[in-house]
Design goal:
The chain is mainly alpha-helical and about 170 residues long. It has 2 domains: about 100 residues, no CATH class; about 50 residues. Helix content is about 75%, strand content about 0%. It has 8 helices and no strands. α5 crosses α6 and α7 packs across α8. The radius of gyration is 26 Å and the shape is elongated.
Length: about 170
């Protein structure tokens, strides 16, 4: 498992009280809530256990179609029904849980996309273009700068064309 996969598994284990509270027994829920509170003593207080038990009962009394099934949906449901005052610690814990993984994932995805673009541009670039790319670092001649700008535009046009062809191929498959 990758490092980020291990991190997400650890986050899920730490927030077990929030993520799996509907399926945990009362004893398991109290242990998981105590563990979560110990990780965030400045953010969550002793009423987290009671709030989770109350929320579990509250959701059990609802129509099954109205019950939120994911942490994000539960967070939205609490907000839409103005229940932040009833479940303040649950709301805080849900927000901590829902926002932590998203932040890491988008950064990883951005770097991955950047790496693909750079690799593509490197693999399609001729030696002449490489020289033109690095020429501004060596000389400040205006002609060289114009040639570099032109080469960059050509690279991006080629990239966009190939990207369009790849998307068409995927749609046709």
């Amino acid at each position: 498992m990758s490092t980020s996969g291990n991190a997400y598994a650890e986050i899920n284990e730490n927030f077990k009280a929030i993520v799996q509270f509907e399926t945990l027994s009362i004893g398991e829920l109290e242990i998981a809530a105590d563990g979560l509170r110990s990780l965030f003593p400045n953010d969550l207080d002793d009423t987290l256990n009671t709030e989770l038990l109350h929320l579990k009962s509250h959701l059990a009394a609802l129509d099954q179609n109205a019950v939120p099934h994911t942490p994000i949906d539960l967070c939205k449901w609490i907000r839409l029904n103005d229940l932040q005052c009833v479940y303040p610690n649950v709301d805080i814990a849900l927000r901590m849980y829902t926002f932590t993984p998203a932040t890491n994932y988008s950064a990883e995805r951005s770097f991955s996309c950047l790496r693909r673009v750079k690799n593509y541009l490197r693999s399609t670039m001729s030696e002449e273009r490489w020289v033109l790319r690095f020429a501004p670092n060596i000389a400040s001649d205006g002609e060289v700068v114009r040639e570099v700008a032109s080469a960059r535009e050509q690279d991006m046009e080629i990239y966009e064309k190939r990207k369009g062809h790849e998307q068409l191929d995927e749609q046709q498959s």
